[in-house]
Amino acid sequence: MSDKEDTPLTDTGFDSDARKRKSKSPSTFASSESKRVKSELDDLDSDDIAKQYKRFLNSPKFNLNSEELFCICRKPDHGSLMISCDGCEEWFHTKCMKIDNQHLGLLDRFYCKFCHWKGKGVTRWNRKCRRPLCWKAARTKEESKYCSDECGKSFLRLKLTGSLHFSKEDINFVIHYCDTHANLEQLGLKFPELEVVANQDLDKLPPLVKDSIEENDLQQTKLRAEIDILLKKRDYVLLIKKRNETINEMLTELVGDNQETEKSKKGKKKLTRPKKIDLCCFDKNVSKDIDDPKSVPDLAGAASQTSPSVYNLFKEEIDGVLLAYQAEDHSNNSICLQDRRKCLRHNGWYSLLQDKTWKKLNELKASLETLKLARENALREYSISIYEQDENTQERPTPELLAQPIEGQN
């Protein structure tokens, strides 16, 4: 590619209209060949190109004044900028080829539409320098987005000083405040709390904020106590499940031993597998302990022991169930001794008890998180109000409503 005109090009700014003329100007980045081909030949089919090429070849080379004719317009050189085709070496006006003059610095190879139609090649563009007012090719071989180091510095300087949100003073502060890149990445991730807030010095806070904080802390303390009790109840419910499994296992072994003893007395040698016992084991005392919000089961802390024996924890209850089952006395026992599959009254009682415990525990935890967030937001709003006062802006009201009523509390 070569230029017929020696006049240097002047820089022009981004033009909104130029961005819309996709068929008249190259992309600011390297375009794919298929898109470029479509923009040049979108309105022409093969027959039209063939007819135009035939007229181009048959057209005169000189006019009546013996001036050499160029381009598809067949006009002489009157000073308009022209480029040479790398395929046929004919000269074409940039205007006729729909190429913006300021984009010429981005051309790598130029092929006219006739050479493209004949398959000699396609026009290729270099990546544009990232700086908006520069129309030179970027140094892609050096893996740079800029045509020169000066352009790179100018672009970054424009990005910093031309921001609507940062002034030169802000940038100067950041440069001196962040001595490392890691500190720069962490800048702004954490809210700059006031010293009185960071140290949790409530006595130095305004009375309204202090009272709200103290009320919030009091409610959090109550919630944590309830959560602690409920966690013990949850562990107790898990122990009850193990107790019931132990009862059924021991009864199954006991019944099996009795069957073997009876068969040995009758002289029968055939052994059969003992029937598995699966009792309901609903315990009304357990249900009362779980439903009472202030009740803590006596064995609530047993689950935290290193290796507790379920039988030792519930020895009195388990022995009572074994004796009552053998005596077929179901009247004076707090534990239901009916077959689990036949006991319609207590159907699914353990699952309901477990679900109730977990649901209440999740509700209390959610309420505690709400109080924590309210406390944090109120202190944050107080810090913001102080910052705004320092900037001589309109004073914001002191935040209120730190303590929020929790359902079920007085």
TrEMBL record:
One of its GO terms (molecular function) is zinc ion binding. PROSITE patterns: ZF_PHD_1, ZF_PHD_2. Pfam families: PHD (PF00628). Keywords: Metal-binding, Nucleus, Zinc, Zinc-finger. Residues 68-118 form the PHD-type domain. InterPro entries: Spp1/CFP1, Zinc_finger_PHD-type_CS, Znf_FYVE_PHD, Znf_PHD, Znf_PHD-finger, Znf_RING/FYVE/PHD. Residues 1-36, 389-410 are annotated as: Disordered. This is PHD-type domain-containing protein. GO terms for biological process: positive regulation of DNA-templated transcription. One of its GO terms (cellular component) is Set1C/COMPASS complex. It is found in: Nucleus. Gene3D superfamilies: Zinc/RING finger domain, C3HC4 (zinc finger).
